[in-house]
Amino acid sequence: MVREIVMMSHSAAAGGYAAALAETGRSQNVLDTINSDIHNLGSLLNDPNLHSFLVNPTVLDQHKKSVLETLARKAGFSPYTLNLLNLIVDRKRTKILKDIVAKFEELYDEMTDTEVAIVTSAVKIETARLAEIAKKVHNLTGAKNVRMKNIVDASLVAGFVVRFGKDGSRFVDMSVKSQLARIAQEISSVESAITV
Questions:
Q1: What is the pLDDT of residues 43-56, one digit of tens each?
Q2: pLDDT attached to residue 86
Q3: Which of 134, 1, 105, 90 is nearest to 45 (CA)?
Q4: H or E element: which one contains 182?
Q5: Do the beta carbons of residue 156 and residue 175 sit within 8 Å?
Q6: Are strands 170-173 and 145-152 parallel, antiparallel or unpaired?
Q7: Greatest CA span in the chain, whole angstroms?
Q8: Which residues of the chain have pLDDT under 70?
């Protein structure tokens, strides 16, 4: 119960920081720039060493700020993004950085009418093919923009599955795995009919 409350608290806090940054971006006409910063920040936080350093409570805030400032300068982050990072360090909330990234991406997608389509495939899909899939998703949803994410899952054997819509509720399954499952089900149905 306590853990759930802490998780909800982290989620609410992350949502608040993300919303403040998104509103600042919109009001200052730099929303796309900040989105690019946040995307890059998300990639940087995938480095376990950096993430461990930032969430370590024994590391001094000034050291965390120094590292973040160096990374921000190299990546060309906007001053708004760097200000947020410094604020998060000051408030000892670095543990929710990944949550802030995720919440900001959701808000950005809503603000820009962007449909996120997750394409799960047996092998990485080429950019040109992803663009074709994006066009199809655009036609199906009518969204202003479509952002594609490609996830590799070798268990699909071949082909791909596209999930989109609120919570991935809509999907198109073009995987060999699902085709094999359908064939197995048909064979099973025929066998059941024969044995009856």
A1: 999 999 999 999 99
A2: 96
A3: 105
A4: helix 176-195
A5: yes
A6: unpaired
A7: 76
A8: 1-10, 157, 166-171, 173-196
